[in-house]
């Protein structure tokens, strides 16, 4: 499959440039993809960001060099992109649990983060319904938090953010601001794959001014691929997210356009077996 070969080409490019500065444009070009779409695909398919993968691979290779050659720690640090021995030692200890110097001792146990590989898994026995929606720009009002995608921080903090908003009356206030629209939105915006950060919104579509303690922003006009999730949260929607990036994107002529993406939650019991919600992803047709 073409997309599989492209992902392998991107991995080959990364492996061949581990001692050089990360150039996301060139990595994505190897996959014949935009930088944003490639990084989003990589993250959803592998569970790690491109930056995190490169960081772990570099520390794996650095440990091998320290264990097998007389190269100086400073030279290894510089070779793998660290500005100082102190920064390298901190990262090395986090990855391996020991100092770089200790890696030279006979019998020392080191951790290895192997090179990833992509394999074709034949699926498609279950249909995947979606619709394409053209929507003009719209304004949302809500509360925001900044988080990191490094080491899965966002997966821990975002559910806590929802719990907090449920307890402090934010839900009721947002529903009031939404007027006749009672759908809550969970929006991922300002996604910066290189810095591994994003801004997460719990919001409603509304033309009302943002009250004190709330923010507003405009979601730009876009073409959206919309997918329906049926089942209890969060397992059902997480399963749909996985299928979108493992099956739908590789099997269609679309890619992520790079804008905000969101989940739409209608009223109802999110724990019920028949709860329906939606994933909206901005897309464009590949040229």
Automatic annotation (TrEMBL):
Residues 8-106 form the HTH araC/xylS-type domain. It comes from the Bacteria. This is AraC family transcriptional regulator. PANTHER family: RIGHT ORIGIN-BINDING PROTEIN (PTHR47504:SF5). It holds the Pfam family HTH_18. The keyword Cytoplasm does not apply. InterPro entries: AraC_E-bd, GyrI-like, Homeodomain-like_sf, HTH_AraC, HTH_AraC-typ_CS, MarA-like, Reg_factor_effector_dom_sf, Tscrpt_reg_AraC-type_HTH. Coiled coil: none annotated. One of its GO terms (molecular function) is sequence-specific DNA binding. Keywords: DNA-binding, Transcription, Transcription regulation.
